[in-house]
Amino acid sequence: MSTTDTTGADSAPLDDLKARHRRMWALGDYPRVAREIVSPLGGVLVDALDVGAGERVLDVAAGTGSAAVRAAGRGATVTASDLTPELLEAGRAEHPDEDLTWDVADAEALPYGDAAFDVVLSAIGVMFAPHHQQAADELVRTCRPGGRIGVVSWTPEGTIGRLFATMRPYVPAPPPGVSPPPLWGTEDHVRGLFGDRVDRWRVERRVLPVDHFDDGAGFRDYFAAHYGPTIAAYAAHSGDPERTADLDRDLAALGDREGTAGPDGFAMQWEYLLMTGEVV
């Protein structure tokens, strides 16, 4: 199915912050990162929510649609939405036979009616919306009472949370009101965002096994080539060889600390938080 842009002429134009986010996630090759490493998390979330045939499912900040595709495979009627059209186009190209709706949409201003979906979910996606409360409010608004909400997010203490902490000194400070993405990997933060509007929470910390790299330098080089936020961190110091060398060193050191070299190669365990609940 085609990709529809709901952030176009009939809606308010993207502000500078959202436009920068859209450009950042189009850098490099995030579809490759999804395909080679993180796509299993979409299936983890869909399975945890036990998505069923005929259910109306919204995948928010879907990226290339790993969760959306898994839900469609279970017979659900699925909409995959994301702010970055390049990611949706990549997902649609990778899954041309899946019966999905692909919408370019802002997680903080979703173009869907109240209670329009039975299941609203996001796998390592909505955590990157800059205003956490607005995004959480939209997840609740679009899910019917009795429906289910589910999120998978990198934890602050896990490898990707530490990646963002390592990059923080190398990027400009965010505008006021913008929250760090890994906060979505903290149970108390997520419960606070949803308040008493969601209950029957099921909460698990899990790890994604990753054996894609030979060492910490390989981890750094992969992210520097393919992951938008890391590419943006390097771009901020493109004219400063000393600062670039510092970033090189810090990311490689992080990778070495987070991985373990053994007889089967270099292995990492990327921690994430899985939370599912029911809308009151």
UniProtKB/TrEMBL annotation:
The keyword Methyltransferase applies. Residues 58-149 form the Methyltransferase type domain. One of its GO terms (molecular function) is methyltransferase activity. Keywords: Methyltransferase, Transferase. One of its GO terms (biological process) is methylation. InterPro entries: Methyltransf_11, SAM-dependent_MTases_sf. This is Methyltransferase domain-containing protein. It comes from Aeromicrobium senzhongii. The lineage of its organism: Bacteria, Bacillati, Actinomycetota, Actinomycetes, Propionibacteriales.
